[in-house]
Amino acid sequence: MEKDNSKEVVDSASLLNRPVHLDKAIEMVGFGYFHYYILFICGSLYVSVAFSVTSISFIIPSAQCDFRMTSFHKGLLNGAMMIGMLIGSFIWGYVADSRGRRFTLIICMLMDGFFNILSSVSQMYSIFIFCRLLSGFGISGSTTLFSYLVEFLNIKYREKFLSWMEMFWTSGIILVPCVAWLIIPQTFRIENEYIMFKSWNLFVIMCSLPSITLALLLIKMPESPKFLLSQGKHKETINCLKFVHRWNRNSDDKFPVTSIIMPSSNDKSNNSFFDGLYKSTIDLFTSKFKIIAIVTCIIHFCATTSYYMLILWFPELMNRFRWYETYSNFQNKTTMCEIVSMYKAEPEVTNLKCDDHIDQSVYMNIMIIGIACIPTSLVVPLFINKLGLRFFTVVSFFGSSISAAWLYFITSSIENMVLSSIFEAFSSIGISLTYCITVELFPTEYRGMAASIGTMFGKIGALLGNILIGIFIDAHCIVPIFVSSSFLIISAFLVITLPKTGRTNIITDGVL
């Protein structure tokens, strides 16, 4: 690092009296403490997203008696957050491109935390769904973190830092069942004529705290220099780079750049909010990036449909396997679809008493599924510069497709855990890399909108997937399994059609 910094100082001497391209200026700030800190902040944001999104898979079985939920109601509850994310994704993309990455992240994380806390004291199913919908609306803007992170990095570190984000998602997947295991099995109960507060309510509150904490930490962070320059804010861009330069060098050394090449302004201040939103969308889909935008939207739709169709139901499926292996009198092994249909029809369990107990093996199994993601999360950043984002994304989608299809043939909870681990490891990294590809392929003025519209299509798929599995899981579970596997294969082939990312494929527009 010291050798690189000294070279940058030598190179900068001849640049003091003339404007510098922004990518060159970002290289000259050096690479150091600030970049590791912003990776930690953005990674922690991704952890909080994992908390907010996947916590519902533990809330559903533990709150099913309080809200008297059928399988359809459970699917609707899963889908409520996706509806919020669907609406929010479209809006937050424009906000990120017009008001700033940091501003968007702060508002979104505060919204997510607030409505999660509000949902924790909800006493009615309808109110709980409404709060989860608004929480989803807020958390949908968190995809801006990919744009925020990449716009502080020079080309050398972009793909590697983006690929490290999967490790943070994996950490969230591991931590959620840990927190659930500590809290939900507790038997305390606060009840009066107005409110009933149980362990799962406390679990919801605990899952909201990371979002609020990180929103407060973001207040002290600078705005993205590429966003600032795209808005024509030359002085603020220089100040941002000086801030990063001081932090990296841990000194008050003067940043040598005093002028940066100005791009064409992306000022939307004369537009109303909805006019600007409409114009930004039209500009994206009429630009030279329109084909890439359409393809990435389809990939987001297919991959996210498949992922959320299965991952949020894994605790429920594990609970049903646990029930079958504990209470069933059947001696012959049977397929997963037959087991989940038996659970609905069994009178000893469903008719006499509502069972909101989550077996301890479920928590352990979900933790194991998260831990199984660690190898892939480590391998990708190590080899990303050699093999590229596209290679790993295609491999991830094919691997997760095979594991999803094989779920139909499993006959035990052990097989279920193994296949679930493989599916989570491959599909989650595939979706994360899809976000990485999106922010790499689009220039600054389109990046936020492209990522958010892709997310919007993903949430449309997630919503439809949750409704689909809620309808078919009891009687025809082969339908969601077939759809999940097929959509992942489609995603893999579409990724192959995209341009390669990396320094050989940078589209120079002055602000990328």
Automatic annotation (TrEMBL):
Family: Belongs to the major facilitator superfamily.
Keyword annotations from UniProtKB, A to Z: Membrane, Transmembrane, Transmembrane helix, Transport
TM spans (from-to): 34-60, 75-96, 103-121, 127-149, 161-184, 199-219, 291-314, 362-384, 391-411, 417-437, 449-472, 478-498
Source organism, top-level taxon: Eukaryota
Record organism: Aphis glycines
Keyword Transmembrane helix annotated: yes
Compartments in which it is found: Membrane
GO MF term (any one): transmembrane transporter activity
Name listed for the protein in its UniProt record: Major facilitator superfamily (MFS) profile domain-containing protein
Residues covered by the Major facilitator superfamily (MFS) profile domain: 38-503
